[in-house]
Specification:
Oligomer: single chain
Distance between the termini: 27 Å
CATH superfamily: Gcn5-related N-acetyltransferase (GNAT)
Structural class: alpha+beta
Strand content: 35-45%
Helix content: 10-25%
CATH class: Alpha Beta
Number of domains: 1
Length: about 180
């Protein structure tokens, strides 16, 4: 397996089609069929290719400041981690998460953050669950317009400490959209 790091603006039409196919097959019925992002473009992606150069895994990354209880934090957000259905349970998801960990080492990042319905893979890879009350920009998926501000407790929130700070419970302002 080969892992490739690619900036969003370097994705060509051929690769975009491969990413689109993987995302729509992985997130059936909820992923837009006309684009390679759900709410907003990630800054960069890690892509996993098999021996036949087929795209079998994907994770998007978003780097931004968030505010936790009045303190700004530098957050690397994980977006749309997925593995093709015929190659699941072969360690590709873990490999992608390890690639993210390696990328975060020594960088100006306090935490890696994600939202997950199924937490098993992330718990096995050092993430912890948090139940912070979150504030975020609500974006309508179809029309891609702002619908207001959301504010509620999120039990899907997971974080991994990669800097020198400790995560605390309380109010988390995402200062942008919800991954």
């Amino acid at each position: 397996m080969k892992i490739e790091k690619i900036s969003e603006y370097d994705i060509n039409v051929k690769l975009e089609a491969k990413i689109q196919a993987l995302l729509t097959n992985s997130f059936r019925e909820i992923y837009p069929s006309n684009r390679i992002y759900f709410k907003q473009l990630p800054h960069l992606r890690f892509l996993a290719f098999n021996q036949e150069n087929q795209l079998v895994g994907h994770v998007g990354l978003d780097y931004r400041v968030m505010n936790l209880n009045g303190e700004p934090l530098k957050i690397l957000g994980i977006i749309d981690l997925c593995v093709s259905q015929n190659t699941r349970s072969k360690g590709i998801g873990t490999t992608l998460l390890l690639e993210v960990d390696e990328f975060a080492k020594g960088r100006n990042i306090d935490f890696i953050l994600l939202f997950a319905d199924n937490k098993t893979l992330y718990l096995r890879n050092g993430y912890k669950t948090c139940e912070n009350k979150c504030k975020w920009l609500k974006i309508d998926n179809e029309s891609q317009i702002t619908n207001g501000i959301g504010y509620e407790s999120m039990n899907e929130l997971m974080v991994k400490e990669v800097g020198k700070r400790e995560w605390t419970e309380g109010d988390l302002d995402l200062l942008g959209y919800l991954y």
